[in-house]
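fyi for ur records
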Amino acid sequence: MLKKDYADVPIINSVDDVVRRLLSLEMASQKEKVKIKTQQLVEKVRRSPYDNGSSEVQIAMLTAKIRTYEEHLQKHPKDKNNRRRMLMDIDRRKKLLGYLRRVRYDAFENTCKQLNIQYTLPAQYSRRITKRWLVKKAFCLKVFQEVQKLKAAERLKERKEWLARARARAAKEKEEKEAKEAQGEGTPV
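which gave:
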């Protein structure tokens, strides 16, 4: 495969193999190789020819960077700085994938399929259980139960008062009703 600038030149077919090899990707700089890799991945997920900033394109660009870092780290496993950058890019890509999954699930699936990304759901939050945390939790539960007992007594008292008022109101209404009926019987029609 030839470099981008020389791929469309018509004379390229007539030059000898040494010149072709010099213009091929084998002899290209790392920067040019990364640029071509990025363009290939972006072309797979791009919505339109002018799409440069959508989530899919950003994910494709980060994927190209991550794969380049992986290749580099296989040759240089002690390179901590590039490992850190790779992990930061992986986190950024994970964040973008999560956003795309929430907003446009069909585009998310297509992007993962085209770029050969295996997305795993983030783990549910789990707290590390320590002795201190267990003691604190037990104390909080005990306090909560004591408060519930106190509130239960107050609620029972309020409920009894409410029932007494309701009964008094019902008895008063009954007396008024009987009084009206008694007045109604005594008057001639």
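The chain has six helices and no strands. thats all i got for now
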